[in-house]
Specification:
This protein is mainly α. It contains 6 helices and 2 strands; from the N terminus they run αααααββα. It has a two-stranded antiparallel sheet with strand order 1-2. Helix 1 runs antiparallel to helix 2 and helix 1 packs parallel to helix 3.
């Protein structure tokens, strides 16, 4: 249980309260540092999975904790951006993303209990959604529109990517539901 991938995943979970506290500090660079911590957590998500496969250190604990860690930090970030921006233009896609995360997690759990979890495994659409979502959250959390006087438009890009992630979320939810439909209807 105490291998490198699992320790990295636990580190990601430990980053969540640090991320939230730093983001809300009354300090000039708090949002930027919070966005950096979120980015660090996103990178560790890729890294722990890579190590688990490369070192053949996959464990049931890691398989359980990794998606939980992902959902927790993403949910925290979505709640934080809805608080920061306090606009329908951020709140609606954030709610869509949260609903999708809960729905797909429940669907995968149920499919696993039926012994057919592989039919709702991660797809390309799901990976594209995750990439757009993470980049959107980094941009929106940072609040950066300029860097050292140069326009970078992170927030504007964040808005666009948030909507792309929301659309991909709905699409992947439909794909996963379609894959599970025959089992949900009770016929095998």
């Amino acid at each position: 249980m105490w291998n490198a991938p699992n320790i990295i995943t636990l580190f990601r979970v430990a980053l969540i309260p640090v991320f939230v506290v730093i983001y809300f500090l009354d300090w000039r660079w708090a949002h930027e540092l919070g966005a950096f911590i979120f980015w660090l957590a996103a990178i560790t998500d890729w890294f722990d999975g890579y190590l688990a496969r490369k070192l053949k250190q996959s464990t049931p604990f890691g398989a359980f904790l990794d998606p939980v860690a992902d959902k927790l930090i993403v949910a925290a970030a979505l709640i934080m951006i809805t608080h920061t921006y306090a606009t329908l233009w951020v709140t609606v896609p954030a709610i869509v993303l949260l609903i999708r995360e809960i729905y797909v997690s429940a669907l995968r759990e149920w499919m696993g209990s039926q012994g057919v979890r592989d039919e709702v495994k991660v797809s390309f659409v799901g990976k594209a959604k995750t990439t757009a979502q993470m980049l959107a959250l980094i941009g929106l959390l940072s609040g950066l529109q300029t860097f050292m006087g140069f326009p970078i438009y992170w927030v504007s890009l964040g808005y666009i990517l948030l909507y792309i992630a929301a659309v991909l979320s709905l699409w992947s939810m439909i794909v996963y539901t379609g894959a599970a439909w025959k089992h949900l209807g009770g016929s095998n």
